[in-house]
Amino acid sequence: MQEIDDKGYKKLLSNKEIFDSEKRLRKLPPVFPIMLYNGKRRWTSPLNLAELIEGHELLGEHVLHFRYFPIIENAFSRNMLLRIGNIVATLFLAEAHYDFDLLAKKILELVERTEDKQALSLFLNWLKQLFIHGRIAESDYQVFERIYQDKEEVNMLIESIRKEKAQLRKGGKREGKLEIARLMLQNGEPVEKIKCYTGVSDAALQKFLQKLPKR
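RESULT FIELD:
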C-alpha cells in the first residue's frame, strides 16, 4: 500500500515519476481515515461528514459521505490501558490518566521487554514534547529520560521526586493560608477570626500587621 502524507492525494497525483513510470498509477491507493482525540471532554462530534450537512437526507446517494475511525484516549479506562501495556497504551495513559509513579513503572517495564529501540526513542521524544509544552514537570521528564540511560538509578530518583512533590504540596497549602490571612487583615478582619479560619500563627500575623500601612 502506498503511504499518503499530510497533503494526501493531491501530492500523489502531482508526482510525475509515478505516472510516467512503467507501473503507471491507474487508481488512487486506499486511505484509512483515523481521528485521534486526546482532549479531556467527551467527544460528541458526528463521525460522518454527511451529518454536518443540513437536510442531507434530501440528497440521497449523492450526499458527501466521509466517515473517520475515532480513537478517543479518554474512552480507555486506566485498567484497560494497563492490561494492554504496549507503547501506545502507555502514551494514552500519560495523556488521559497521568500518574507519575505508575507511568515511571510502566516505562521501566517497556524498556526491559521492548526490542524496538527506535519506537522507545520516539516515545521518549514525545515525553520531551510534553515537558517542553508544560504538560509534565521537568523533574518528571528527567526520571523518564534516566530510565533509558541507567535503570539501576530509577527507583532512587522516583523516591526523591515523590518526596519533593509532597514537600511542594505541603508548602503550597501553607502559602495559600498565609495569602488568605494577609487578605483578611487588609480587609480589617479581627485577628482571632483569621486565626480560626486559617490556623496561621500569631507570629506570622504580627509580621503581616507590621507591613500594613498605618491608619
